[in-house]
Amino acid sequence: MDLCLQKFGKSFGEDIIIQHLLKTIVCCHKLCEEKSSFMLKAGKESLQTAVTALMIVSCEAEIVKQAMDIRKLAAESTSDQLLDSIRKSKKDIITTYFKTMDKKILEVIKSTLFFTKCFKLCWKMVVQDPPMFLDEGPQKEKAFDKNVFREYTSSRTKVVFMVWPALYLHKNGALLVKGVVKVK
Fold it and tell me: Which segments constitute the Mitochondria-eating protein C-terminal domain (predicted)?
């Protein structure tokens, strides 16, 4: 955040930078979810072809489990490859997943260790079985659940914007970490 504030502080301000950091994790998570789903489907189809060719008797659930295990084993190298494709500014990735972000701010964020760690964390979250879940939070001007979110800078009840998402073990699972909202 400090790097963005140094570079853009006067023209964007702290709130905009904070919102872009949030957008970074949300966009990375969405990208990872979609890529993971695509890879799981492709892996399942490849395993099914191999199982059929080798005349191995196997049920659908076993094939899906094997594909998930392979995807999890390759998590580090896969996240490195995906991260490299984002850093090379593949326009389709940027325009599809990071379109809500200011391009100048995104370029600075992409060059940081925060972005790398954020992306790798998101990838590890989505290859879990079941995948971990990010709660993108309450709507602007609405009340928020204090069991799921905590306030940032002041104690009020109406959301100005979300600072950080809540993290769950999986969708409808146990809350691992409360999210953070700026309130008024």
Answer: 18-181
For the stretch 67-126, pLDDT in tens is 778 878 888 888 898 888 887 766 778 888 888 899 889 888 988 999 999 999 999 999
Joined tokens for residue 173: 């699972």
The radius of gyration computed from the CA coordinates of the chain, to the nearest angstrom, equals: 19
Helix-, strand-, coil-residue percentages of the chain, each rounded to 5: 60, 15, 30
The torsion defined by the Cα of 128, 66, 117 and 82, in degrees rounded to 10, comes to: -130
Asked whether 99 and 106 are in contact (CB, 8 A), the reply is no
Q: Answer for the pair 40, 71: CB distance below 8 angstroms, yes or no.
A: yes
CB proximity list for 108: less than 8 A, separation 6 or greater: 3, 4, 7, 8
List, by residue range, all CATH 2.30.22 domains of the chain.
132-184
> Dihedrals φ, ψ of 44, to 5°?
-65, -45
Whether the Cβ atoms of residue 43 and residue 67 lie closer than 8 Å to each other: yes
Could you read off the pLDDT of 124-152 as tens digits, one per residue?
A: 999 998 999 999 888 888 889 999 999 98
